[in-house]
Amino acid sequence: MTPARDELAGAVIAALTAAGPGSRAGLLGSLAAGTADGYSDIDVEWVVPDGRLDACAAQARSVLERVRPVAAVRTSPDFLHSPMRRLLFVRFTGVPLFWRLDLAVREASAPVDPAFDEPVAPARDDEWSRPASALANALGAVKAVARGRFEDARGLLDRGFARIGVADSASGRWVNDITRLARAAVVQEPGLTALAEETVQLAGAELG
Description:
Helices cover about 45% and strands about 15% of the residues. The chain has about 210 residues and is an alpha+beta fold. It is globular. The chain starts with a helix and ends with a helix.
């Protein structure tokens, strides 16, 4: 158990539930199942009234700022054009990188399982950041290696390099691999520099 993370998750759920009439929030994933470890992020579902998806997704950052300062919010391209759900990746200021909030927002009448959604048009390249997604893969690789899931780490790194069109792949020298991917992402999006360097430092501390 990680009390600070559990406290943050509880505060997030309370803030989202109070954000508007008819909405509710709860844990998903390993925290909900009681199987979380020190590397687990925070998975939360926010169920909102039908017709309120766009408005609630737009106000999510301001709602979460009531919990603690938000460093960044990124929207998954997978559901960007869905009429019934969004997936937001939220990074809080001053919180360990491992504790990213993955916030699933869905309308009340939407299927619980997104596999039952109607197909939607994919997000365009100008609607999401491939470098930011690749950098998220670098962080995911830190977690995977720390957990001893080396094939998962290799897949995350290889997909990260491919996502930004870099002809590179995992070598199994994990800190090196993660550093190369993080810095390759920065070449394409310099605004990611601080987060990339924090990821590199974390890899050295956890895996070095």
